[in-house]
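# nightly structure sweep
# worker-07 picked up a monomer target from the shared queue
# config: single-sequence mode, recycle default, output format = structure tokens
# input follows
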Amino acid sequence: MTVQGSHGSRLRATTTIALLALLGAGSAAVAQQGQLTGDAARGQRYFTDGYKCYACHGYDAVSGARRLLPMNYTQDGFITFVQNSPLPQMPAYNDMPAQALADVYAYIRSMPATAVEVENIPLLNEILDRKLDALGD
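# output follows
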């Protein structure tokens, strides 16, 4: 079915404007992501209570299954990674708002990037020594 006359021209123009607006809004959202300012205090609440990141990454972001410190991502990279994780151990959290993730990023960046080396944990060394003794090594 073909729409004729000025009504058809207006319909095409309206459709074109709507498509351009949608494309522009998507581009603006991506560009705005880099302009977000994270709040470390709010990010701490998301890390511990809201999204419970500590469950896999530890309260200190280094003692969990996957270390987050030192942070090697930019804020944009972190947000993109969390929302679209390619790792099978970490699901993609594509429903997390970019602002909330900027807050989590600010919190992680505020944490000291120091972690005790495994060799310097006395209790762990004692356990490993006892295991080796029990095995006869």
